[in-house]
Amino acid sequence: MNLLFQLAVFAFIGFSFLLLISVPVVFAYPGGWTETKLKTPLFSGLGLWFLLVLIIGILNSFVV
């Protein structure tokens, strides 16, 4: 269970870094937020980020 928790935290950190880079890039596109076609991947990424937060919260209750 410890290994699964550590892998989830590592994925969370890596994905957070990916979003840290990609969100400003999406907003910097010409035409801004309204005309970009990157909304769907960005919202999917945010959903996955929240899912990782929930998974880490659940796994945290099993780690001693």
TrEMBL record:
GO terms for biological process: photosynthesis; photosystem II stabilization. GO terms for cellular component: chloroplast thylakoid membrane; photosystem II reaction center. The keyword Chloroplast applies. It comes from the Eukaryota. It is a multi-pass membrane protein. May control the interaction of photosystem II (PSII) cores with the light-harvesting antenna, regulates electron flow through the 2 photosystem reaction centers. PSII is a light-driven water plastoquinone oxidoreductase, using light energy to abstract electrons from H(2)O, generating a proton gradient subsequently used for ATP formation. PANTHER family: PHOTOSYSTEM II REACTION CENTER PROTEIN Z (PTHR34971). Belongs to the PsbZ family. This is Photosystem II reaction center protein Z. It comes from Caulerpa lentillifera. The lineage of its organism: Eukaryota, Viridiplantae, Chlorophyta, core chlorophytes, Ulvophyceae. The gene is psbZ.
